[in-house]
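hey so i finaly got around to running the thing on GH10 domain-containing protein from Miscanthus lutarioriparius. pasting the sequence first so u can double check i didnt mess up the copy paste, my clipboard has been acting weird all day
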Amino acid sequence: MMISTGKLVLILLIVLFEGSLVTSKKGYSSEQPSEKGDGYSSKETSEKADDSSKKSSGKVPYDYSANIECIKEPEKPLYGGGIISAADSSGKKCPIKNSVLKVELKKDHHYALSVWLKFSKGTGDITAIIVTPDGKFNTAGAIVAQSGCWTLLKGGATSFAEGKGDLFFQSNSTAEIMAESIALQGFSFEEWNAHRDEVVAKERKKKVKITVECGGKPLPDAELSVEWVAKGFPLGNAMTKEILDMPEYEEWFTKRFKWATMENEMKWYSTEYNEGQEGFEVADKMLALAEKHNISVRGHNVFWDDQSHQMPWVSKLSVDKLKVAVAKHLKSVVSRYAGKVIHWDVVNENLHFSFFEDKLGKDASGEIFKEVAKLDSKPILFMNEFNTIEQPCDLAPLPTKYLAKLRQIQSYPGNEDLKYGIGLESHFDKPNIPYMRGSLDTLAAAKVPIWLTEVDVTKGPKQVEFLEEVMREGFGHPGVKGIVMWAAWHAKGCYVMCLTDNNFKNLPQGDVVDKLLDEWRKVPEKPKTDSKGVFEAELFHGEYQVTVKHESLKEPIVQTVDLDSKSEAAIKA
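ok and heres what it spat out for the 3d tokens, dont ask me to read them lol
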């Protein structure tokens, strides 16, 4: 299908008028349905998981695949085009006069969009818009496309009303947009949730076998207590220096989280605000506290590319002096914490900002990654960016641009074999869940671990509901390997989202996190060994403390077993 950009001028004006692009502190926000009736049912998600899985057994499975190469000929449409007719889904040989595709949308359905796009000439951004029956313009996704080859866009939108809708594309280029293999597949909320459950069952759980012996013989009918203690899927939170002087904060945090990020204390402006006056005492103490509780820490961050977060003395440095200061700071922070952190956010937000690239050259990020790896080779090295999965209207950090920047860093001489990770800050307002999943599909095709590194949701009547949806979507995606929330406690108020009040009593946001922690570490009730002294079950990955009670034992056996990397464990009295 060939779409003339000129035909989109009127449509584009309407989109802008309707407020499809709304500026915010973290980039842009796509228009969403009004608060009335626009929520996803968290209750359905948690209470109807088993039932929804059964319902979806005969339905269309979700396709998590994505081709991230620009190819000569587009692949066939996913889902056979879904609700898009064959003529519209494969139309590059038969251009249509109308630039808008009419579609019939169902109420309370997530729609997964996939389409191969290219320009007749040049390079630019292409954005997909879905207009739902309630008149809302939803940005379903965007990519960087070019002429000469086809690029896949994956995204989507949610319809909260039933009736006729529109799908169209817009661009900042004057060239013609060519679209091929368009697919729009609808899934009810129950079906969508069932897809998550299927991923959880496959990726987060495993069938385990625990054998209990006493005196070299099986111990049948033994009562077991199985409790998660460590490892498994990483779910953590940011923490602040207040934790050092507040035992109640320390207790609340450490009983929940085994992964953490220091909110600001490891950043350059915290360790050397004044030139030459380095101070790592606070970060050192926070790391010691984490180690005491067996909490793994993400190193955040080596450098931040945002001009507004540079110290005045750094901003004023000449290029030569800046190179010296960068090298000095990099060596100081990375050497100090080498072997003590599991990740480094090497260059923070280098898609939105470019302080170091502007000063030191376009390969500054690649060089910094290389030098960090020389000093600390074990941690995974991350780009860390906002709005890549949150806001499809923010064109700076699009998944295709994220991957292009990652490739640039990987291709820098000496960087081929480094350990890379994709860091997605995940600061959400009103999440577009289909866009989130489609973007994760695209990023996961790079075959490096994805972490949601700073998850929060802005305040509003749907904050708790949206937080649960985002957390479940991340946990239920096969490409996501960890989640850290950005809900560090401050006496004067949190950055965006608090989990507790100032007495460390849970707020509703904290309650939903606890609910998810309990659900994702759940074990069978009253487990027992069988006649052969064996207990078998489906458990979430992790280390578990197992307590064995039996009338033949003078006292219970207590042992920690690794069911994270292994599927079998033996307990012997």
